[in-house]
Design goal:
alpha/beta, seven-stranded parallel sheet, 15 helices, about 375 residues, 2 domains, Rossmann fold
């Protein structure tokens, strides 16, 4: 049974889609349709659209989606039956259109990487309600739904009256990660300086301004915050780093190299602001990457992050998501021997690894393809 993976975005730095695609291809033929060329997946089918300057941005986006739908329809029509693996709400809409055109020979799996209807800080109620209506209309057409945290899965079951979605966490593949001095050497940091690493997308709502304010206010330079990644906040961080030696920045690295860099930090920071429902219910991949690299975690007080960090004993959770809350948690972290947290993190990573998540994904895929094969 052929699977067609739909991603209305670039592929190379979307580690979840890359891991899912590798697994799907281990089970059978799978095509990937995405926006822009991919260096990591040379056979990815790329959709591009060079918009005229005379076109409004909304018109350009609509024309791009039309081209994406047309290419997806070509792939679907080339098969008697297929599974459309839709990453995020935009791709789910495309999958539903394909099913409407081709009928029940198309099955849909919806992988919601976020809490889709409120995935950005500052969204207006009208916008949220519009996305809710769209997701409600589409999600019932999916043969399987995937979520990234318990809270999101529970909310989807409650809101849409569907069976509880399959939980597939954003975990890295299992690997033995050796500690190194990559960050210290690259940035020229001293041996007595403790490295607090924030890795991932650099954008609003991720606690970045709060973290920079906290480290800038510290008098001694023994503690350094290093931001590694890219995104809209890159220039702001670079400007702050130029003025404060306790703030540093590194560019994003290829996914296959990431954990080598992670393991060269002393602590991992996962301080997500409770600024939208997606952030409130999140379980970020950086949390599992820190655990796999065996470094203690300094975490924000959000529902699923708090539950996991405290249950597995891999670090400290702030009492409140503020500068004062972060500073208090950091002081508690530094007053405790980190060796137990390191040991717990390595033990937990045997459970929180991608191989365990593949087993859940495989069970879902078997159910969906089995129901398709049973069609007369």
């Amino acid at each position: 049974m052929r699977t067609i993976v739909l991603l209305l975005g670039p592929l190379d730095h979307d580690t979840r889609v890359l891991k899912s695609l590798r697994f799907l291809r281990s089970r059978g033929p799978a095509d990937i349709l995405c926006l822009g060329k991919s260096e990591q997946v040379p056979d990815a089918i790329a959709v591009n659209f060079q918009a005229s300057r005379r076109l409004l941005p909304g018109v350009s986006a609509l024309l791009l989606r039309i081209r994406f739908l047309a290419e997806a329809l070509r792939l679907v029509c080339a098969n008697e039956a297929c599974v459309c693996y839709c990453n995020d709400l935009g791709a789910l809409q495309v999958g539903c259109l394909l099913r409407a055109i081709r009928g029940p020979c198309v099955r849909i799996i919806y992988d919601s990487h976020e809490f889709a209807i409120n995935d950005r800080p500052g969204e207006g109620r009208v916008h949220i309600f519009g996305k809710y209506l769209m997701e409600r209309m589409c999600i019932g057409r999916a043969s399987g739904v995937i979520c990234v945290s318990d809270s999101i899965a529970n909310e989807y079951r409650r809101m849409y009256r569907i069976p509880r979605p399959t939980l597939v966490l954003n975990c890295p593949p299992s690997q033995d990660v050796v500690r190194s001095d990559l960050i210290r050497t690259t940035l020229g940091l001293r041996k007595d300086q403790r490295i607090f690493l924030y890795q991932g997308r650099l954008t609003s709502g991720r606690g970045i301004e709060l973290l920079m304010d906290s480290f800038q206010a510290r008098q001694a330079d023994h503690d350094v915050i290093v931001f590694m990644g890219n995104g809209p906040s890159t220039q702001v961080i670079s400007d702050r780093a130029a003025a404060c030696p306790r703030i540093r920045i590194l560019p994003a690295v290829p996914p296959q190299e990431l954990l080598l860099w992670t393991a060269s930090a002393d602590y991992g920071v996962c301080f997500i602001e409770d600024s939208c429902l997606s952030y409130r219910y999140c379980l970020p991949n950086k949390l599992f990457e820190y655990m796999m690299a065996g470094i203690p975690v300094l975490a924000s007080n959000t529902i699923d992050v708090k539950r996991l960090v405290e249950k597995e004993g891999v670090g400290v959770v702030a009492k409140e998501n503020s500068i004062a809350g972060f500073d208090e948690a950091l002081d508690r972290l530094l007053q405790t021997d980190p060796s137990k947290w390191r040991e717990n993190a390595r033990r937990a990573s045997a459970t929180f690894c991608w191989e365990q998540q593949e087993a859940r994904l495989g069970e879902l895929l078997d159910r969906v393809t089995g129901s398709l094969a049973a069609e007369p």
